[in-house]
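Worked example 2:
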Amino acid sequence: MTKRHLTIATRESPLAIKQAELVKAALLAAHPHLSVELLGITTRADKLLNTTLFDIGGKGLFVKELEEALLDGRADMAVHSMKDVPMDLPDELMVPVILHREDARDVFISNRYHSFGELPQSAIVGTSSLRRQTQLRAIRSDVLFQDLRGNIQTRLARLDKGDFDAIVLAAAGLKRMALQSRLQYYFSIDDVLPAAGQGALGIECLKQNHVVLDLIAPLNDVITFHCVMAERAFCRRLESGCHAPVAAFAQVHHDQLSLAGLVADQKGHQILKAKRSAPLRSAEEVGERLACELLERGADKLL
């Protein structure tokens, strides 16, 4: 069976649309015979911007409505930022393809200061991420954090309005939106470990839709896929959610996967870190083992 038309479900934020368009372009390059359309969906998490993700049910609300479109047949696939995808998916769905990863680092943005270290005493930094707040408090305990949600343009507009001295965002989104000129400073992976899946785009679809599975298969980046699977296995074993400061980042050198993981308390008073390496084929196993190591060191009490 040859499929001629595909529908991609996507959130309706400018970044999400851009990411879906990247996938569309990759599909058309691999299969010139296809026609591809985007199905924009406004998720509940996108509507409730004045409420924390923890209070409304976590990052899974960024993907729930897109998954419903897959399950009821309105869409053939959905494109997600992998850091927003819950660790456990509905039984009928899977993420078989992850594209080549963009820059996974977090970045510092300010109109007055060139780096996090330049901020004055008690400066106000905008970010709703407990993962970022915890690690940044370990660098500067005097800095004050305030919640900041919304799309990239909304967050930059609040910075420009003077609500914050600086904000922290993911480099990947800014680069995809061609907003690199706003970047002041890249945090190193050692200073601020990224969220699991940060910078990576995944394609979700029905497990039984073999036609779609065959069409999207050429888009998979094997190294990125294994790295993200290791990071997700780490978080899954910890049973962590949006209310827990947890981070994980994997890299591959000469077929060896190296995974760094972090668990902290919400105030940043205690941070547990560990690293572990294994052959690329053992990606999920190394994630689980690293999580077990931190659990043995007391991570469960922090979570």
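The CA atoms of residues 133 and 266 lie 8 Å apart. The first helix runs from residue 14 to 30.
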